[in-house]
Structures are given as structure tokens and as C-alpha cells.
């Protein structure tokens, strides 16, 4: 099996996993439509339970 991710990529993934948190209060500061689109596209690629994909 070949390595798909570089050491830099792996370290970035570990940092994100280590820094994750549960947000209970959100800021009222607006975000740009481009940022929102990137977030939604990333969420669309996340795994789903039991391979259920309600967006199809």
C-alpha cells in the first residue's frame, strides 16, 4: 500500500482531530458565501451511517 498523504498532510489531520470541539454557542458574525459553500461541500463528502445518503 502506498502512502497517499505526505507527512505534512498527516500532521495537519492529526492537529485538526486533536483540536476538534463541540460548539454550544455560535458567533453572529456572518461568513462569506464562498466559505459556506466550502463547508457544505466538505460535509457532503463526510461518511454517513449505514451508507445512507439522504441527499441522493
What does this structure look like?
This protein has 56 residues and is an all-alpha fold. The chain has helices at 7-19, 33-44. The longest helix has 13 residues, at 7-19. The radius of gyration is 15 Å and the shape is extended. The N and C termini lie far apart (32 Å).
Structural class: mainly alpha
Give the overall pLDDT as a whole number: 85
Strand content: under 5%
Shape by Cα distribution: extended
Described by strand count, sense and barrel closure, the largest sheet is: none
Order of helices and strands: HH
Low-confidence stretches: none
Number of strands: 0
**Helix proportion range:** 40-55%
From the N-terminal CA to the C-terminal CA, the straight-line distance is 32 Å
Radius of gyration: 15 Å
Number of helical regions: 2
Key attributes of the depicted protein:
extended; 2 helices; 56 residues; mainly alpha
What is this structure, in a nutshell?
By secondary structure, the chain is an all-alpha fold. The protein contains 2 helices and no strands. The mean pLDDT is 85.
Amino acid at each position: 500500500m502506498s502512502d497517499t498523504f505526505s507527512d505534512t498532510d498527516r500532521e495537519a489531520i492529526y492537529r485538526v482531530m486533536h483540536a476538534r470541539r463541540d460548539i454550544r454557542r455560535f458567533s453572529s458574525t456572518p461568513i462569506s458565501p464562498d466559505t459556506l459553500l466550502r463547508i457544505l461541500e466538505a460535509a457532503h463528502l463526510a461518511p454517513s451511517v449505514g451508507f445512507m445518503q439522504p441527499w441522493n
